[in-house]
Write a structure and sequence with these properties.
The protein is built from eight helices and eleven strands. The chain starts with 10 loop residues before the first helix and ends in a 7-residue tail after the last helix.
Length: about 325
């Protein structure tokens, strides 16, 4: 399919991506020069007393080396002509996560040393996770934004002849809607709320994080999937703004058995060459998009919406108008 073109991002995009990746080792280098650190940093504590030290120069050099290696690996992958766009994106993401993790660990040591109320005091229990996650997420977000989105095929072919079709009048608009519920995610929300309540007095930040995760998870308890003249839409609780995949981005649709581990797990998942809204193992609707990726959504009886999508795409490719479309 022509959606595999081009095989790599443009040169400005590739250079911008490498500059974003270099933010991690650059931050390590700058902080090592600007922050007045002791010759040795505490890296382990026993009963709130440091019992393990490493030279600050070795730690900064190690974090810097990880970042530089990540930049070099990403540069090599971006330079060679073979790997497809999404495979390169996966390697760039892994490199940015490694660089961000190394910078985050170094940043934790710097923050701990610079803000300790007494020399060699251990970091607060929640700061370790926050600084490390911030390093990984920040570096990955910078590199992902710089790398850009996969190229799209401007003129996709009609869906394959062996895919399902639906009975749809020549001018009838495509209309379908289904609401699904997930007991699994409802249980997760309840557990997160309870965990937050139990941790609130002892570890307030962890409690707040648990409650935030509960709020983010609740959108997966009830999802409404709809097909209309705009494309395929997903709405949390069937209300409010929705995410829509327009018809111009869809190549074909299939009804398949979705296994969560094949899509990266449960929930909103994004892995190389595919993305999914997975609430359980079972039947699902899978759309092939013009950029070569696949979008999987767990729904009951997906054969009908898959046939409706393919039939409407046949009409769009042939230039047949629809009422309201």
């Amino acid at each position: 399919m022509s959606s595999r073109r081009p095989v790599r991002p443009t040169r400005p995009r590739a250079l911008l991506t490498l500059f974003a990746l270099a933010a991690g080792p650059a931050a390590v280098l700058v902080s090592d020069r600007l922050v007045d650190l002791p010759a040795e940093l505490a890296v382990h504590w026993d009963a709130r007393a440091p019992d393990g030290y490493l030279p600050a120069s070795s730690l900064s050099l190690g974090a810097l080396a990880v970042g530089v290696v990540a930049v070099l690996v990403a540069a090599a992958v971006l330079a060679v002509p073979g790997p497809p766009f999404l495979a390169r994106r996966f390697v760039v993401g892994a490199c940015s996560a490694a660089s961000g993790a190394a910078a985050g660990v170094w940043g934790l040591l710097v923050v701990t040393t610079a803000t300790a109320p007494v020399p060699a005091a251990p970091p607060p229990p929640d700061v370790e996770v926050v600084v490390l996650v911030a390093g990984v997420v920040g570096s990955s977000a910078l590199a992902g934004a710089a790398y850009g989105q996969p190229p799209a095929d401007p003129a996709p072919p009609p869906p394959a002849a062996d895919l399902p079709r639906a009975e749809l009048g020549p001018a009838d608009p495509p209309r379908w809607s289904r609401t699904s519920y997930s007991g699994f995610f409802l249980t997760c929300v309840g557990l997160l709320l309870v965990v937050g309540a139990l941790l609130y007095r002892s570890v307030a930040l962890a409690a707040v994080l648990a409650w935030v995760m509960a709020v983010l998870t609740v959108v997966l308890v009830r999802l409404r999937c709809s097909i209309d003249e705009r494309g395929l839409s997903l709405q949390a609780w069937g209300r409010g703004p929705s995410g829509t995949v327009p018809w111009s981005r869809v190549v074909e649709a299939r009804a398949v058995l979705i296994r969560p581990l094949q899509w990266g797990g449960w929930g909103f998942r994004v892995i190389p060459a595919r993305a999914g809204v997975v609430t359980r193992k079972g039947p699902g609707l899978v759309l092939t998009l013009t950029d070569g990726r696949r979008l999987g959504i767990t729904v009951d009886e997906p054969l009908l919406p898959a046939g409706l999508v393919n039939t409407h795409l046949d009409r769009l490719r042939a230039g047949t108008p629809t009422r309201g479309g």
